[in-house]
Amino acid sequence: MVTQVRGRSSGVVATLVAVLLASGLIFVATKGLLYAVVAVVLAAYLAFVVAFGSRVTGIACMMAAFATAPAYRGLEQMIGGIPPCDAFVIIGVIHLLPTFVGNKLKLPTVYLSGLLIMSVMSLVSVIVTGDLLINAFYAVQWLFFIGVLPILVAWWRPELKAINLMLWSYLGGHLISTAYAFVEGPIHAGRYDGLTHHPNAFGLAGLTSIVIVLYFVPIYRGFFVRVVLLGFVATSLLSIVISGSRASIIVLVVIVLLVPLVERSAVTGFAWVGLGALGVLSIPYIIDIFGEESAIGRLAGSGTASASDAVRTEGLKVGFDRLWSSPIVGSGFNKVEEFHNVFLEAAIAVGFIGLIGYLMVLYKLARPLFSAHPLRRLSYMVWVYMGVGPTFPGLWDRTVWVPASLAALAMLAPYVRKKHDAPADLVVEPAREAVPRAVSPGRA
Hints:
Organism: Nocardioides silvaticus
Oligomer: single chain
Transmembrane segments: 12-29, 35-66, 78-97, 109-129, 136-156, 162-183, 204-223, 229-259, 266-287, 342-366, 378-394, 400-416
Keywords: Membrane, Transmembrane, Transmembrane helix
Protein name: O-antigen ligase domain-containing protein
């Protein structure tokens, strides 16, 4: 009897809450078109949470974060306010936190030490350089996307299915951005930027999409999926070419040369060398089709390449002058994005000591690519970031760091779930840094 009364009381409370929420959303919707859109989004969000639960909602939010990451700043400029990518990450973490807060976590000492150095030097820089709010705002973004988010991902330890869904979302997001590029047309001197804020960011998103496909290739062996992946490679390569990003095309070549080392296969090596030779022979045709402002054309010195080099060189000169004015503790994060080199930006912001910590963090995230870890290919994205870093003004860039946060999983030792666990996917647990001998590189 008591149980029935409690059940009825809970139902009444739930009904009242639903009515109040609906009334509030209807009231908000009457205040204008923008408010109506917000009300619809909130209503859809609440309905999704009720229907699927907190965990699924959290994964869906992370998928949305990955989908909007390729064009996060362009979308921010379109809608104003916080980038959608950031909002989805925050909401996703809030929903997922109760599901992994009890997990044990042991990260490499070098990674944690580097992050500690970065944090301490960021705090010192923010305090001693003035402009407290501006510097703190940028410092928090930097530390969150290179430190906090990877740690949260490692703590969460998503199943393989969740990892793949998030990465597929990224590919889908960049595909939409590429389609928009052709609808919009070139924005300046024949270069395209899609939904991003700059052609170089568009090229970087295409490069990131290609290395995500490299992660997928050993996982999906079916003919149909392989064809789909090949289509993503083609569209992503096209986005790099029409973006005019020279850094992206150079780093892509380097990644192609790394593939045989990662896969430990002579056959794969010859195949990639053949593709590379075909690409070299295609250079004149690419320039002829896409013009001098394509990535290949600008790499050959055509179009606006010389002007861009002059601007970048002058910026580096100013950046080094600022660095030597305070090389130990740095001079803060304000306006560091003007210098188009993430390593110089880090040194300017937090000094050489902070730069050492930054390199330690990058090293631990990038190193697993050459291990036998089953998830080692996730580290490709970190190598992409380090490759474009010397020419890219993205110290806290989400285009790479949102998907690259998954590389933290490759710092943890692998294990396979027991048969009665569902789903029975390969995941990782915090344990020894060394990879067990039972893991076969050929099967990973």
